[in-house]
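hey so i finally got around to running the thing on that chain from the lab meeting. sorry it took forever, my laptop kept dying and i had to restart like 3 times. anyway pasting the input first so we r on the same page abt which one it is
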Amino acid sequence: MLREINKIRRAGGGIVISFALTVMGSPAYADIEYDANTLFTSPQPAFDITQNRPSLELHRPTVGAINITGQLTGSGDAGSNSSAQDTRPFFYDPSQATTANLGDLTGDFADQAVTPRNGISAGMDLNDAGWVVGVSSTTPAPGTGPSTADDRPFLWFDADANHAHTLGEMHELTLNPGATFGKALRVNNTGMALVTGDTGLYRATLSLNVGVLTEPVGRTFITSSANIVDMNDAGDVAYTSGSAGFVWRDLNADSLMDPGETVQMPFMSAAAPSASVFGINNTGQVVGTMRNDHLRDIGFVWTDLNGDNTVDFSDANGNGFFEWNESSTEVVRFHGDAAGINATAGNTFVFDINDTGVSVGGYIDASGRRAFTFDATNGMRFLDDLIDAAFPLDLREADAINNAGQITAVGRSLGSTVDQLVLLTPFSIALPGDLNNDGFVGIADLNIVLGVWNQAIPPGDPDLADPSGDGFVGIEDLNAVLGNWNAGTPPPPGSDELVIPEPGTLAILGLGGLAVLKRSRLF
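ok and heres what got predicted. didnt touch it at all, straight out
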């Protein structure tokens, strides 16, 4: 269960997402909030098939990350073998509904018919620009089990936009100082990457321009040992080392781990001192688990409200442990309900949190495993209760959530032992042009675009003003709104969101000529 959990990021913070099925023109079932789709079912519509590359069956699916556009990376195997061998990274592009087998640095795509079997390669993370980082393992491992001896970190980018791996798109990253092997675990939207290996975990800075990878010298040493890590766009690093969880923030921006910059998550129990950190968002919120006296893992969300880089709590007896009956304004601990922090059964793992403070994870007890979402308004809710009851899979774990509210989960059909990947999409974001996710395309969405009109913006724009994702707010983004004008559920009378015919809107804004100009390029 405790494995590397990867992050979905988008700079800024912002919009609280509300969900309504009526946006899709369907019956208003209040308890259905997500459209659930099983990914990568056979046959796969992958471009790699035309290039005679084996498709990834994903019998041992792992989602590394989902970015703001819904692109995914992770790992899967190339056939019916369910052992942890011959895994390769994949890249899923929702715009084409295609899955690319990225292979490894040697060009091996893990064909089941080829022997000897080749090691374990995986996609670990991707940013909003579509950079994928991970590990390329070329160690032959028949009968020897997994090996790290030939692990190499890589960065991949779909430079020719063909939704598949092309020669030259996978770049080998430099190993850390003194290391003989390593892998890249995270990449953020500002070009920072976390690379780990036999000499420890380091933070590096990368740039990728016109297919040329640049790695400036000098890396920041984080820790000698970390088994779970995450990083936000500011370069803050959350990690678990041994039985303790930590967060490092480079407060003076000197790229060194100075005293006072690292905070350790508190323990709940002197009898079982254990806490793990799984994720950190761009507002600095941290999620993970703390173990209680009953040896149960209790999920938590920490928000550094006063900015003192310390987890503040009421240590009533002064023993230094954040015990089940002690309170904190900064830490929310939950286990199904508030009283559950002293639970004697069940375990809760919070794996990821987006910039609006919505977190996801998995709950385990004697009856099985369930995926959940948690937010300050609704509390902890099981995702099975928020999708169509006819969906054929039981959702067992939710690993990642992006700022659009999309969730990646693992599901399993009744009686099966094979996990399948599931993508949950809030119904409110399925409406093109609805940039503020209020279920209607109108003035508010138009103002988001016009507020940064003709401006270049970095990946991860907090206002969602760049739906085209090209880094510039212009005609493409305007047309995403105007092309769906007045779509969705009309706002209530008297609201700020007006229902205006599209021609009238163009005239009011003086943008008619721009729209005509754009249309003329299509013919």
